[in-house]
Structures are given as C-alpha cells and as structure tokens.
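Bit of a strange request maybe. I'm writing a small parser for structure token strings and I need a real example to test against, not something I typed by hand. Could someone generate the tokens for this chain?
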Amino acid sequence: MTIKLKKQVIDNLKILKEKKSECEASALVDELSIDYIVLMSAVNDLIDQRLGGF
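Reply from user aminoacidic:
Good idea to test on real output. This should exercise your parser:
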C-alpha cells in the first residue's frame, strides 16, 4: 500500500516533529493555520493507518 502526501501535509508533519512531546491542540491549529476539525480528521487518519505511534 502506498500513501501519498501533499506538500502541505509534509510541512505540517515537519512542524509536529519539532515538538518536544506534547502540545495543546488549540495551539497547534493556530500554528498550522488549520481548523480543529481538520486536525482531528488527520489524527483519525493516522490512527486508521496505524501511523505516528497513536
């Protein structure tokens, strides 16, 4: 199975990689300039694909 990521997703993952361990979702959506629902959708996709250690 191949998962293709858009440039925006890759940029967002780079920001997440820079975080120490935990961050507040509200701060993250502000930093990424995305909607909270978009963030939660992305997290759910990671869980479904068993990615990111969720």
